[in-house]
Amino acid sequence: MAIAALMPSTFAQTCATINPAQAPTFASGYSGRVVMNGLKTPRGIIFDTAGNILTAEQGSYGVRWIQLTDNGGTNVCVKTSKQLISDTSINHGIALTPDGKTLFVSSLTTVWSWTYDAATGAVSNKKTVIQNMRNGGFHLTRTLLVPKANPNVLLVQRGSDGNIDTAAAQIGTARSQIRIFKISEIQATPVDYTVGEVLGWGLRNTVGFGEDPRGGIWSVDNGVDDMQRGGRDIHQTNPCEEMNYHGLINDTASPERGKHYGYPECFAVWDPSVIPNGANLKVGTPFVIGTPSGQNTDEMCQARMAPKLCFPSHTAPLDIKFNANGTAAYIPFHGSWNRQQPDGFRLARVTFNPATGVPTEPSTSTTAAQNIMYNANNAGCPNRCFRPVNLAWDPKGRLFMTSDTTNEIWIIGGAS
Q1: Does residue 26 belong to any structural domain of this protein?
Q2: Which residues form the Pyrroloquinoline quinone-dependent pyranose dehydrogenase beta-propeller domain (predicted)?
């Protein structure tokens, strides 16, 4: 009888299985399960200090607060959820200060802040902090990051206003850039985006950026569509999607600080075999779009900042998150629309050397991103497959991921 009385407490509770909209394939050692579905185009995802999920949902929703039931490992499910902020203009960016008390969320035009209470899941004291970021019809997201190495600043990304935004060649347009804002200043008085310090520019559409354990800032950039070179269409396999480095956030003398990364004139090679007069070009080498002439030459491009790594064209990396010891970065590839054979639609791992803080593979590598979660067949993509968007580590060091096409949040087993 004593044994029988103990039996209910010795068996761990199990979350109900949620069948995925489209079942993915996992690499050896990895697994995953759906934590929640039925969301409204989830994009940005973060955890608060109490272990609750906050998502920015692009489907005319706003911000959702999700409290979890945690049975250990990937056995995690939703205890309760609610709409934290109702705002149909919220479309991607979300960030918390490391103390968990100030929440930032973005739209096409604006960044707002709220005072946030993790214990009750409540916000108050809404403020406009950054404004006037509107683009015409392109690249509408504004990714946000409060670095752990410097919790006094907010990084804000803004993409180009067009496939080739010629005006972005002028730094004063404040497009295709990442800028730095002092939180104390923007909390006191709202500012225009042009006021921020330039961390990097010439970044076509850097939807994803993150911080390594040393305080280094890394980004992933989406290359140009429909690329031509010397009158030849090379867009099926060029340019590459870039992984760029922007230096230590606390090192204002960093050689990467405020530098130009090439756009709109320059991109990096993925497939040199199809590039006219490309005998001297290798994977990752910056080169000029169109026909080289005058000052617009490959040499001009190579004088600007080159990517640290390249990924296949049009795979659309949208985030980069480092593990705690700096041995790996995880990158979700949202997937292509601008190539005949769909590509992307996967979660990948890039190995880093924690002693040096750089990838173990050289910049010329075509195998640096190792797929850990992917669609077995991309033929049904983008509408009939999972499309990863954003990543977040929970307080226990487990990796979570949003998929916007399937309206899901996943937990990924084996990621570390």
Answers
A1: no
A2: 24-413
Q: Which domain holds residue 400?
A: 37-413
For range 371-384, the mean pLDDT:
92
Inter-CA distances, 110 with 89, 93, 398, Å = 9, 10, 31
Phi/psi for 122 (5° steps) reads -135, 150
Asked if 191 and 131 count as a contact pair (C-beta separation under 8 A), the reply is: yes
Number of H helices, E strands in the chain: 3, 32
pLDDT in tens, 12-48: 589 999 999 999 999 999 999 999 999 999 999 999 9
Return the CATH number at 171.
Answer: 2.120.10.30
Asked if 40 and 85 touch (Cβ cutoff 8 Å), the reply is no
Q: And the tokens for 382?
A: 């983008």
As given in the structure block, the two tokens for residue 155 are 């990084």
| Cis omega (within 30 of 0) for bond into 307 | no
pTM of the complete model: 0.96
**How much helix, strand and coil, in percent to the nearest 5, is found in the chain?**
10, 40, 50
* Cβ-contact 114, 90 below 8 angstroms: no
**Amino acid in position 66:** I
Mean pLDDT of 344-371: 97
